[in-house]
Design a protein that fits this description.
The chain is mostly helical and 114 residues long. It is built from 2 helices and no strands. The chain has helices at residues 2-18, 21-113.
């Protein structure tokens, strides 16, 4: 930016002395437009930096939420496994109780038959 400004100023001074008033006005207008464009470029660069910062923050938030989703998914799987395990234990316990009752009934039938 500084090289352009120096070059613009040197051209401006060398050409101003050689030009008539109308050309000077046109050249000054062009220089003003160049300066405005440079300023606009700087503003856009600042906006881009801010936008990159926001995108970085959003990306971090998405990553955090993905971790939370994975954590919840793993927890859900563990709960399902625990429930299945409890159901299997209950089934085993119920089978044992039924078998015990059947043995008691068989003993009663044997005593009644004797």
């Amino acid at each position: 930016v500084y090289n352009y400004e120096i070059e613009i100023e040197s051209l401006k001074h060398s050409q101003v002395s050689n030009q008539n008033e109308e050309q000077t006005i046109i050249i000054e207008d062009l220089y003003k437009k160049v300066e405005d464009l440079l300023e606009e470029k700087n503003l856009m660069a600042e906006q881009l930096l801010k936008m990159n910062s926001v995108v970085g923050e959003i990306s971090q938030e998405v990553d955090n939420q993905n971790i939370d989703v994975m954590s919840l998914s793993n927890h859900r799987k563990n709960v399902i496994l625990a429930n299945n395990s409890e159901e299997n234990n209950e089934k085993t316990l119920l089978k044992k109780q039924i078998n015990d009752l059947v043995r008691e009934i068989d003993k009663c039938i044997m005593l009644l038959s004797a």
